Structure prediction request, 582 residues.
Amino acid sequence: MRTNRLAALTLLAAAAALMTACSSGSSGSTGWAYNEATNGGFQRLPYLGQETGPGLVFVEGGTFTMGQVEDDLLGSWDNVPRRVTVSSFYMDEVEVTNFYWLEYMHWLSRVYGSSYPEIVDRAKPDTLVWRNPRAYNEPFVDLYLRHPSYRDYPVVGVSWLQANEFCSWRTDRVNERILVREGLLEHNPEGQVDDEHFTTSTYLDGQYEGQKAAEGIRSLDPNSGGFRNAALTDGIVLPAYRLPTEAEWEYAALSLIGNSGEELITDRRTYPWNGHYVRNDDSRNKFYGDINANFVRGRGDMMGVAGALNDNADITAPVYSYAPNEYGLYSMAGNVSEWVMDVYRPNTSQDADEFRPFRGNNFTTKQLDSEGNVADKLDYVVYDIAGIKNFLTTYFDAAQNTLTTEGVNLIDNLNTYVTQSEEELEFKRTEDAMLRMQDAMDLIVGSDAPIASDLRTGFVKQITAVPGDQKYRDVTVEENLNRRNYRVADNIDYADGDFNSSIYYGDVSKESEDGIVYNYGKTSLIDDHTRVYKGGSWADRVYWVIPGTRRYMDESQSDATIGFRCAMTRVGSPQGNPSGGR
Prediction:
């Protein structure tokens, strides 16, 4: 039976008096005993390793050849094979399901629904992705997300941005549950409204108190005394759920651990299983003889012949439908393609780092106040002002011939608010700028113009942070002057897409131009918001289930064939915990 952590922690003060200066109870640096109030109270709490979070399985890392293992049928030349190393990590056993997403939306509605219904709207999947001008898919528009028959099917119509928001929400809910389980917080759903809800970062920074189940962990610091909140150094809370990197996803999908012995990989793989065929040939497996994935077997053949359906799914399938790979991961081939963290670049294979390769870094830091303390958490909605300005311009250009006078006036008034917000941002009055945008949203909600609904949807898509979030900012060049490893915050264009990598290098007149290499919408469909998605889907031929294949889409768009699963960083030993948990 698991021992309650809080009981163990609160006994530390009494136990400290009995500790001797052995290697586990004293500093190897100074010799002073840990957990002694008389020595200053520096604490070393018991820690047995990283707990495996809900829904996750452990993926032991290693080296592998990342990239194409099959003919480059599209001639894109964007995935040349190269050897890389991936650290151990955790990954969802299955894709995020419709029911998980409905749970997420229910929480948002409960916390934000009364004051900020636009935050709930931001999380709604685009169910219209099912529509096809030459197919009758309307039942999926109405039923796929919410009908209980589909609750264990992978969620689709979710953009890359929405997937990331889900990962952040899941992190906070899991860590909140852990703190409740350990007796540090009371479960208090009715008290969490607007910005007064639990997030991991605000709790660790002392900006969320909630209802405490106990006074906390006993502090042995003689200058503070009493009790304290759990800290990152205690190892109680888990690292963040996030999307996997492209390298992590491909490594996990191949699951070459099943073909390795000692330091030798005996057989390479084309698919996430052995061989060049698509049915399960393991006679010891309950899936023996079954097709290994949900994909299109041939033209017009989505599921086979009645009485002998090959993959038993016309569209997606329940997430546990097919045999797992050697890591215990389901549907790493077929069913839905999956978002990964990376920004797409065609030459990633040539310029990526050999250790934990990834493109998409934008380095941030917590915002501090004038005294050096972490700034107060947000109590307002944050909008992308530039994104809203671009949306209003694009919308007006597309619809100007059909706009009513009322609609034109509404857009003009909204542009006035945008201009005021830009002026506030110039003087770094962020809160005032966002309050102007909230006034703009209120203007839309109160309008009877036919286009009001469209404009509200456009504004909702530009929400970048919500009440209760911690305040972050990009790092600056000025604070990194003496650094050698990086200087600027945004490294998405690093060595590919920036001015230095363009044909205009040296031409000062071109240095300030955006999109100088990837001129999105004119010469390319690639920009810094284009994200990679991996794997085949229910609507793809078997070629796309090869883990090395890669495709891309704008991070704000979604599709009926794309879902996602979460990952989590493994801290400490790359071999995991023998017990599988704490």
The two ends are 12 Å apart (CA to CA).
